[in-house]
Automatic annotation (TrEMBL):
Domain of life of the organism encoding this protein: Eukaryota
Listed name of the protein: Mitochondrial glycoprotein family protein
Gene Ontology CC entries for this record: mitochondrial matrix
Record organism: Brassica cretica
One protein family per Pfam: MAM33
Region annotated Disordered, chain positions: 119-145
Acidic residues composition bias: residue spans: 128-143
C-alpha cells in the first residue's frame, strides 16, 4: 500500500468521523477510537524504514541520470564543440588582452591606455541575443529578427583608484551607454553618495562626448560580432565542463 493511499484513507476517515460525530453523540467514542487507530496506522506507515527495494530504486535513478548526462555530454561535444581556433579570428586592431579563467562565467578584457587602466567585464551566461521583431514583419527570416546584444561593464581607472564605470550594451552597429557612475576605492563608497543622473537625461552633446570617450579607448561596435562568438564559445565550454562535473559527482 503506498503512502498516498494511506493518506487518502486516513483523510477519508477523519471527514467521515467528523460527519458522524455531528449526527450522533454515540459515535464520538467509536469515532475517536477509529481516529486513534487510523493515526497509529499512519504513523506506522510513515515510520517504515527504507528497504533494499528503495536502495535499488535510488541506484536505478542514479544510473538513469548518469545515462542522460552522458547523452547530453555527447550532444554538447558534437553540436557545440568549442572552436579551438577562435583566437585566430581576433579582429584587426582589437586592443584588449583577453583573460578567460576556466570555471568563471565572466570574460575580462584589459588594456592600458596612456595613464589609464581599462577593464571590460563580459558575462558569458548573460543573454546577448535580444529578440526584437517589429510588428508586421512576421514573414521576415528569423535570422533578421534576432539582434546581437552584449551587456558589458567598462571601468576606466587611474592611479588613485577612482574610476568611471559604464554599463554598456554592445550591438554590431552601435555602442549604447545604459548607465554611468564614478566609483571610489573600496571602502570609501557611501550608499548615500550621489551617483549622477540617468544617462539618457544628460545633454545630448555630453552623451556624444562620452560615446567618443569610450570609442577612442577601444569600445567599438566593430568588435561586437567577435565578442558574441567568444562568449558563446565560452558558455559552451563551461556548460560542457559543468555536465562532466555533475556526472562525476553522481557516478561516485
Amino acid at each position: 500500500m503506498s503512502l498516498t493511499t494511506v493518506f487518502r484513507r486516513a483523510s477519508s476517515r477523519v471527514v467521515t468521523l467528523a460527519f458522524r460525530s455531528v449526527r450522533s453523540p454515540l459515535a464520538v467514542r467509536s469515532g475517536s477510537e477509529r481516529l486513534i487507530l487510523g493515526s497509529q496506522q499512519l504513523s506506522r506507515a510513515s515510520a517504515i524504514p527504507f528497504s533494499t527495494e528503495s536502495a535499488v530504486t535510488k541506484t536505478t535513478a542514479d544510473e538513469n541520470l548518469v545515462s542522460v548526462l552522458e547523452s547530453e555530454i555527447d550532444c554538447a561535444v558534437k553540436e557545440e564543440a568549442p572552436d579551438q581556433n577562435l583566437m585566430e579570428d581576433v579582429p584587426q586592431g582589437f586592443p584588449f588582452k583577453i583573460i578567460d579563467t576556466p570555471g568563471e562565467r565572466t570574460v575580462l578584457l584589459q588594456r592600458n591606455f596612456e595613464d589609464e587602466t581599462i577593464q571590460v567585464e563580459v558575462d558569458s551566461s548573460a543573454p546577448y541575443d535580444d529578440e526584437e521583431q517589429a510588428e508586421g514583419n512576421d514573414d521576415e527570416d528569423e535570422e533578421h529578427s534576432v539582434k546581437i546584444r552584449i551587456p558589458m561593464v567598462v571601468s576606466v581607472s587611474k592611479g588613485d583608484g577612482v574610476c568611471l564605470e559604464f554599463g554598456v550594451s554592445a550591438y554590431p552597429d552601435a555602442i549604447v551607454i545604459d548607465s554611468l557612475s564614478i566609483k571610489h576605492p573600496q571602502g570609501s563608497d557611501s550608499e548615500l553618495a550621489y551617483q549622477g543622473p540617468d544617462f539618457d537625461d544628460l545633454d545630448e552633446n555630453l552623451q556624444k562626448a562620452f560615446h567618443r570617450f569610450l570609442e577612442i579607448r577601444g569600445i567599438k561596435p566593430s568588435f561586437t560580432d567577435f565578442l558574441a562568438d567568444y562568449v558563446a564559445n565560452k558558455d559552451s565550454r563551461e556548460y560542457l565542463q559543468w555536465l562532466k562535473d555533475v556526472k562525476s559527482f553522481v557516478d561516485k
